């Protein structure tokens, strides 16, 4: 039985006892008011505080504020002075702090060190405690260099399993311009970097010997305003010097020949030197003495009559096509199985060929060429090179220079690799019977054998070239001690959220002038590498995001500019001092339980301006106008002296992966001219491999959650002789190595991301509940 008070004689208690009604009504009204107030607070003050905390934690407005700056949700992460102290943490300190069982004293230190409690899911130490920024290096080894040099074969390069490394960072506190930071919001600092093994010791991988193109001798130099390829100069001068020695030997031998032979030669040519001139231009001597054979090898039996001890192997092979200008006019393609290249007077084709050959050079040009060959001191390479340029550019007609250059390059290219007399005289360390022999020079000068460590510059390793005396290395893993300064915007007060680590200086430069020939033509560039931008000079600028953040939405309080499909963002890539454009291809995608925006590489700022030369006001053609498709010319930027030397280095995506819709010129595809064999023996070599640049960002904060910056460096390999066809091969790019700079959030870090992403929903849900409570209480008792 219910209490009479409750039943109130069968009536509502509020009616028989009015004071109960007023108590309950008052309670409901108060509850409703409180609920509405809390609902407003939840949606305004609390959510704003939460979003402001997320926002402020991304910036470092100053270097000093350490108190009265905490946020109720993210704690002291919003204290710029504490964040600055964490920013100064070097890689060793960060890892030691991460490995510690004791939590860091501040949240910024926790974030910078990657510290976590091992009780947390996914916190497995030392796995989560990185030694630095992960970098994986994949080297390439040319597996068929002999066939390339002899037959012009298509290169086959083997990708090696990667060296897993980490790039350490040590920002030098004394170099930080704190006044600039505090007053302008610009971080200015110097730092030291070294590469260490990411996990286990992989010295064995660094010590692997690989065959790679020779950077030093494949470079292009500028002399007196004329661009010359170093290897071509060596081919030309080496060939001429070899013919000089060969001619002098033959002249000496024939001078000792029976008088009957000498008289025949003198009657035909005037003297023996003139006979060697006729041999060079028309195979005159061997055709006279060798039954119409037009290659100098055919002179061997006659010379053996004069000197039975003569080693006829010193004579250039017919396939070298040094005589009768066989490459330029077709002799080599007529060779039979015995490499015979015999003139047939009954063949109209041979007669026509001879007529064309005889009409190639004027008598004056023949004299100038032969005098250069016989009178030049080729041990003075500088003087000989200057005289050669003068001859090609000033004393020969354009058609004569083209024909002679074609001959010199074909015969010189073949001879440097296959004619030992020429090869050994220039490079004695290539002779396996010589005490000077070095197997690292087996395929010199176009290829060298070096270790992976030397190629990367690991611990300052380099290949010391015996011919040039130069250290050869790409230097990508070379230690940097107190490097040139870098500047980034770091303050929330910088417009357009550029305070999220937006570059304004890299390696001491706000701009680099080595990407525009018109900039390099300025006197200041020749003096100290600087230039002044103008109507025709457009340097590359250090400008773009650092990929740590792409501005986020902040739940409507930030920007939606980047949080939409097909949005683009510019990232600055320091290794190539250029900007890369990323495109958002999917928003709010699910990745390991969190929402992400998916970005991929859309384009690089290729320098392909005014390629057709139609705009005289735009200056010179861009340096990428002739770059192979989707490759980026680094020849001047990476050069030790860009005013005089262009090294043959081009950047691309790994394995020459293509990106649709780029602004690259549609030149030849480098992947068509080389065969790449993928690596084995490492998880990074397995499965469906990805070679593009991909970045995943958290939409609210814009923070990087996962990213790979992949870059391949390639060497331009100039045409070489094909001894089978008598033709030059096509220019090509040979991959040297590629790197994957990558970073990915650990599971325990994703827990924080989930809290950020659930924060908005939580506040909205809580506000809805409070409003519902308030509304229900407002109804009151009836």
UniProtKB/TrEMBL annotation:
TM stretches of this protein: 20-42
A cellular component annotation (GO) from this entry: membrane
Keyword Chaperone: no
Xref: InterPro entries: CD36_fam
UniProt keyword list: Glycoprotein, Membrane, Transmembrane, Transmembrane helix
Protein's UniProt keywords contain Membrane: yes
Compartments, record wording: Membrane
An annotated Gene Ontology molecular function: scavenger receptor activity
Family, similarity comment: Belongs to the CD36 family.
Record's protein name: Uncharacterized protein
Protein's organism: Perkinsus chesapeaki (Clam parasite)
């Amino acid at each position: 039985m219910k209490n009479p008070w409750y039943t109130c004689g069968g009536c509502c208690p509020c009616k028989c006892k009015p004071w109960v009604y007023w108590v309950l009504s008052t309670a409901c009204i108060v509850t409703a008011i409180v609920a509405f107030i809390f609902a407003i607070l939840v949606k305004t003050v609390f959510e704003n505080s939460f979003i402001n905390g997320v926002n402020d934690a991304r910036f470092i407005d100053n270097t000093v504020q350490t108190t009265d700056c905490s946020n109720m949700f993210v704690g002291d992460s919003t204290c710029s002075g504490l964040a600055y102290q964490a920013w100064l943490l070097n890689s060793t300190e960060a890892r030691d702090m991460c490995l510690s069982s004791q939590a860091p004293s501040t949240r910024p230190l926790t974030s910078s060190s990657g510290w976590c409690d091992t009780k947390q899911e996914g916190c497995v130490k030392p796995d989560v405690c990185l030694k630095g920024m992960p970098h994986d290096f994949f080297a390439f080894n040319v597996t068929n260099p002999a066939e390339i040099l002899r037959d012009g074969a298509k290169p086959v390069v083997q990708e090696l399993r990667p060296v897993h490394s980490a790039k350490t960072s040590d920002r030098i506190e004394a170099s930080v311009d704190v006044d600039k930071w505090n007053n302008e919001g610009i971080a200015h600092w110097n730092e030291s970097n070294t590469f260490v093994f990411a996990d286990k010791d992989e010295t064995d991988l660094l010590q692997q010997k690989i065959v790679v193109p020779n950077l030093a001798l494949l470079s292009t130099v500028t002399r007196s305003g004329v661009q010359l390829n170093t290897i071509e100069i060596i081919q030309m001068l080496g060939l001429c010097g070899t013919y000089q020695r060969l001619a002098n030997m033959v002249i000496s031998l024939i001078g000792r020949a029976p008088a009957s032979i000498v008289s025949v030669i003198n009657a035909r040519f005037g003297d023996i030197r003139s006979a060697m001139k006729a041999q060079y231009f028309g195979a005159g001597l061997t055709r006279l003495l060798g039954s119409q054979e037009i290659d100098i090898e055919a002179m061997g039996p006659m010379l053996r009559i004069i000197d039975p001890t003569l080693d006829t192997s010193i004579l250039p092979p017919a396939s070298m096509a040094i005589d009768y200008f066989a490459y330029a006019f077709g002799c080599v393609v007529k060779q039979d199985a015995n490499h015979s290249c015999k003139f047939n007077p009954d063949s109209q084709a041979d007669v026509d060929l001879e007529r064309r050959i005889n009409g190639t050079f004027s008598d004056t040009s023949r004299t100038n060429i032969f005098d250069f060959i016989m009178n030049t001191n080729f041990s003075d390479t500088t003087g000989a090179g200057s005289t050669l340029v003068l001859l090609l550019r000033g004393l020969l007609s354009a058609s004569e220079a083209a024909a002679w250059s074609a001959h010199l390059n074909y015969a010189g290219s073949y001879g440097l690799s296959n004619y030992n007399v020429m090869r050994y005289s220039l490079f004695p360390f290539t002779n396996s019977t010589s005490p000077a022999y070095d197997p690292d020079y087996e395929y010199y000068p176009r290829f060298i054998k070096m270790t992976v460590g030397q190629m990367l510059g690991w611990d300052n390793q380099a290949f010391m070239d015996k011919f040039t005396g130069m250290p050869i290395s790409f230097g990508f893993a070379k230690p940097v001690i107190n490097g040139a300064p870098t500047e980034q915007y770091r303050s929330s007060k910088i417009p357009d959220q550029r305070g999220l680590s937006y570059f304004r200086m890299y390696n001491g430069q706000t701009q680099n002038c080595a990407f525009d020939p018109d900039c390099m033509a300025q006197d200041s560039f020749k003096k100290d590498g600087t230039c002044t931008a103008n109507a025709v000079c457009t340097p590359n600028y250090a400008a773009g995001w650092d990929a740590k953040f792409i501005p986020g939405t902040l739940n409507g309080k930030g920007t939606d500019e980047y949080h939409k499909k097909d949005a683009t963002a510019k990232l600055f890539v320091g290794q190539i001092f250029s900007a890369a454009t990323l495109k958002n291809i999917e928003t709010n995608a699910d990745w390991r339980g969190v929402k992400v925006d998916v970005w991929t590489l859309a384009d690089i700022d290729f320098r392909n301006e005014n390629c057709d030369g139609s705009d005289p006001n735009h200056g010179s053609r861009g340096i990428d106008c002739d770059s192979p498709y989707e490759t980026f010319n680094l020849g001047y930027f990476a050069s030790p002296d860009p005013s005089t030397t262009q090294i043959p280095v081009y950047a691309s995506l790994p394995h020459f992966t293509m990106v649709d819709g780029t602004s690259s010129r549609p030149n030849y595809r480098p992947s068509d001219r080389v065969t790449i064999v993928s690596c084995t023996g490492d998880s990074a070599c397995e499965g469906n491999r990805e070679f593009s640049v991909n970045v995943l960002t958290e939409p609210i904060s814009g923070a990087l959650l996962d990213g790979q910056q992949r870059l391949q460096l390639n060497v331009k390999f100039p045409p070489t002789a094909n001894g089978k066809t008598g033709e030059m091969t096509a220019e090509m790019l040979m991959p040297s190595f590629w790197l994957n700079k990558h970073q990915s959030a650990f599971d325990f870090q994703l827990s924080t991301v989930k809290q950020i992403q659930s924060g908005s929903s939580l506040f909205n849900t809580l506000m809805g509940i409070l409003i519902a409570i308030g509304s229900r209480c407002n109804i009151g008792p009836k």
